[in-house]
Amino acid sequence: MMPDYYYYFVFYLLFSAFIQFCMLPRHLHRRDINLNKELVK
Question: What superkingdom heads the lineage (predicted)?
């Protein structure tokens, strides 16, 4: 049996990774849009 804090630690890692994964595509998408505008000009 694993201790309780081990499960909390794993849950925290998954939660933080999920938040970073959700926040990343927005910044990349905005960056791609800016690059596309510059290329069009």
Answer: Eukaryota
